């Protein structure tokens, strides 16, 4: 075990734990942001640099500070290490610079982007972004591309975090897309837009931290904060069947995997659950999905939903789909 102090808070973690994961064990504002690291995908991290922290004491044995800021997702803790995240003005300044770089090519099209409201870059820009850009060169632009019949790639928004390629590598049998070219010519591509056809390819949408990969069955249907997220499950032979239904009235607009407090998928779901079951009657509803109070999605206070009324509404929907007579709309639960 190793004792590490992050922003003045001490935590004891297993040897080999990264600074980022040690901070996650503390939780709250101490946790550095992460745009490319994903704990359930091997070898992620080290690409975006938003997780930079300052190591003011390397270890108990060698207390010298590290000479440069380090990527917390890739740096293991040492016993006696002292780290600064939000308590270091140098880190905050560097993070501002990283956000400025990420926004060089990423368009500020949040008002029309389906990721708005659940976009890590939008949150980062809000917290660390500058009001103006200093970039005067021409920006990269791309035509939108269909990756299969359910996913739209909007390369202009991609920040090259590589998460989607790790999903394709590690969750599906056959990877047919990847990062082509190098430097500012890098882009996600599928070689002649070959469709990604395998049962878990839809998870690329959930791991994408920005709006570069979006669900074509949900695109432009609703702003996410106007939807009502519900935890639901079904018996599925391919995955756990545990999902979030993003509904509006009786309509299920989107099905996604459940994410943890760090915005990472808890259990990957299959494409059948994601795309082929858009009726309330396909699911067992567990209740309203808890969304962090700092998220814009929490604005509509859906957690105060009357569960009895919700069950009645769902029953009405099932009856309607079966072609049976609807109960009275103002009928109160028995
Ligand atoms: S498409 Fe999304 S997940 Fe894939 S590399 Fe780009 S930003 Fe990352
Ligand atoms: S999260 Fe650490 S470099 Fe991207």
TrEMBL record:
Tagged with keyword DNA-binding: no
Example GO molecular function: oxidoreductase activity
Family according to the record: Belongs to the complex I 75 kDa subunit family.
Cofactors required: [4Fe-4S] cluster; [2Fe-2S] cluster
Entry's Gene Ontology cellular component terms: membrane
Taxonomy, superkingdom: Bacteria
Protein name, UniProt field: NADH-quinone oxidoreductase subunit G
UniProt keyword list: 2Fe-2S, 4Fe-4S, Iron, Iron-sulfur, Membrane, Metal-binding, NAD, Translocase
CDD domains noted in UniProt: fer2
Entry keyword annotation includes Transport: no
